[in-house]
Design a protein that fits this description.
- The chain contains 2 helices and 24 strands.
- By secondary structure, the protein is mainly beta.
- It is globular.
- It has 3 domains: 126 residues, Jelly Rolls; 45 residues, Seminal Fluid Protein  PDC-109 (Domain B) (Ribbon); 102 residues, Elongation Factor Tu (Ef-tu), domain 3 (Beta Barrel), CATH 2.40.30.
- The strands form 6 sheets. The chain has a 7-stranded antiparallel β-sheet with strand order 17-1-22-23-24-21-18. Strands 2, 9, 10, 11, 12, 15 and 16 form a 7-stranded antiparallel β-sheet that branches.
Length: 298
Amino acid sequence: MTGLRTVSPLEITDSVLVAQPPLEDSAVAWVAGSWPKGSRVRHQHQVYQAGADVNDAVPPPDNPTLWIKVGPTNTWALFNGRTSQTSKFNATASYRFRFGQTVDAVSAIGLDDVHSVRVRVEDPTYGVVYDTTLTVGLAPEMADWWEWHFGEWTPTGALGLFTGLPAYPQADVLVDFTGTTQMQVGNLILGNAKEWGHGVQLGASVGIQDFSKKSLDDFGNRVLVERTYIGWADMSVPIRRAEITAIKNYMAKNRAKPILFLGSQDIEALNVFGIAKDWSVSIEYYDYSMFAIQLEEV
């Protein structure tokens, strides 16, 4: 059994992102000049909307009274660390990264109408040293003939998870998506995995915090208004004595950053891209302690 694995996303910058889909966003690039109210422009991979008529040379980030920040551009939304903003593509999308350091984990999550994800590692000296494709389409929820023909089909691999990439610091990492003309990608995470302890203990729990409205009117009729929800997971992991300080420092360093937590190889609900709502280490034995963590999706 593997331990709890964590992947902290590496920062994506213009110097790291070597290639991306050609159309960054439908919003036009901002330039100094006149913009009528309601105009949408992009600047430094963010989209802004004019709250009034604008006629100046001040960039949108420095002029918040006139420019309203909408969010990231389409091709950069999947680096935003938020599940509420997705990148939308027409059948295919390709990215190429050059970090100048090793990357051993790639994960694409929040996949909608995506059929496959391909990851390659291409070194300038040794060529392609890693090339793996995962099918992340739909499949029956259970393996029987009735479910195959009549049951509901659900995504087979919402994480699109690749681990154990070979260590080539000068290599490029290429990620390709294929799917329908309506495919969407929630988050693309590239980083290096750390492993803690001896595996998630039995007794872990998962669920959602639902923000839907569920009430009764004055006549006793049920009023239901569907709204968004946040997934959560609680788990405990036995860790070694030598890991206590290391995991404390790691969690403190990433206290306000989303992390990919991989709690299971076969229970997808225990794999969460989110933040630690609360955590603690209980020093119960001389050699081993218990790391308990409460996770919330971003």
